[in-house]
Amino acid sequence: MGYEENIEDKKLDLAHKYGTMLPFLWNSGSDCRGFSPPRLWMNPIGEVTMTMKKKILRPDRIRKIKGGFSFIPHSFLSQGFLADLHQNEILLYLFLVLASDRNGLSFYSYDAICTLLGLDLDQYINARDALIDKDLIAFDGTIFQVLDLPEKPVLPAAGAQIGRRQPSPPMDIVQLADRVIKRMPS
User: Fold this and answer.
1) What is the pTM of this model?
2) Residue 112: burial class (beta carbons within 10 Å; 0-12, 13-18, 19+)
3) Residue 25 above 70 pLDDT?
């Protein structure tokens, strides 16, 4: 019972039976030549399963493990950890994963991290503290450890944001010049 045979009847049957689960069937129109959804199969219980037929696009460029190797578990994406992070937190977390050894340890200084990632000190501290609050990393003042993921994303305590340093609001050139002039000795 493949996708190729009698596509319109199957699409209509599946769309009526599983319309809420498979919205692409409703919107794919009668001519599917420009649209290639994943293959659909009915299993013996009558449930729909989708499988994607994959092919190597560049066989000459298949990744191989050479030397060091970093990984992020698929659950980081599928269980909502990634969606829970802000942009600078994602940036710092990915950097720490790449920089860490097999135990998750790394010891880059804050100035090296800020320079490499293009973060100012407040952005770095906020991202680091948020990752600690979310139980993704540990930090002892010198060494970082990327931790094994908790069972589910950890929501920081309500008061965790109160002590956090807030970055200065952006200034335009006139405000900056005025500020510099006021600091100059008369």
Assistant:
1) 0.57
2) exposed
3) no
